[in-house]
Amino acid sequence: MRKKISAVIVGIGVTCVSLFSTASAGAHGYTDAPTSRQRFCANGTVQDCGEIQWEPQSVEGPKGFPSHGPADGTLCAGGNSRFAELDDPRGGQWPATDLTAGQPTTFRWRLTARHATTDFRYYLTNDHYDPTRPLTRADLEPEPFLTVPYGGRIPDATVTHQGTIPAGRTGKQLILSVWTIADTGNAFYACSDVRLS
């Protein structure tokens, strides 16, 4: 009888651990305005995306960008090799959202699991950016053009920010959005290809 009770307790423990693991690994967040690469993969606009098509919310990597964080060339995947398709520039052919530099723009995150937040930061590529090559820190302006501090608060499931992309920029560019988590060592990353006029 004791063996049966022990087996049941062990079974329940394993089930609980599995459920908790699945819940914590299953959801976080991504940008859908401007549309991110992971969103384009999830909605089927872009094919051959690998696992990211089922997990657009899971692009999580080390925080501390730009001094720390993912390695150059792996920024769009947050340094996560499971989602390396996001770092493939695809010959510069990722779909791009048309935006006007110097005009107010809406930036929106969809959070499938909400976390205590340090801030949201948005970086724009510089004049040296080549959309046919993987993104590196040298391709980005050194400072974000928009920072939204959160001071450890937990954001809503949909987060919208208003910001202005620097005037005078034109052509194919990329916005790297970084959601920094306050109570873990990680951040979430999203790359949105844009066409500026």
What is the element layout, followed by pairings?
Blueprint: H1 2-25, E1 29-33, H2 37-42, E2 60-62, E3 97-99, E4 104-111, E5 117-124, E6 146-149, E7 158-164, E8 171-181, E9 186-196
Parallel strand pairs: 3-9
Antiparallel strand pairs: 1-4, 2-9, 4-7, 5-6, 5-8, 8-9
Q: Which structural class matches the secondary elements?
A: alpha+beta
How big a fraction of the residues is strand? 25-35%
Please tally the β strands and state the result: 9
From the 3D structure, determine the CATH topology.
Coagulation Factor XIII, Chain A, domain 1
> Architecture, according to CATH?
Distorted Sandwich
Number of helices: 2
Radius of gyration: 19 Å
Summarize the structure.
The chain is an alpha+beta fold.
Description:
The chain has 197 residues and is of the alpha+beta class. The protein has one domain: chitin-binding protein cbp21 (Coagulation Factor XIII, Chain A, domain 1), CATH 2.70.50. The protein is built from two helices and nine strands, in the order αβαββββββββ. The protein is globular, with a radius of gyration of 19 Å.
List key phrases describing it.
Coagulation Factor XIII, Chain A, domain 1; 3-stranded antiparallel sheet; 197 residues; Cellulose/chitin-bd_N; alpha+beta; disordered N terminus
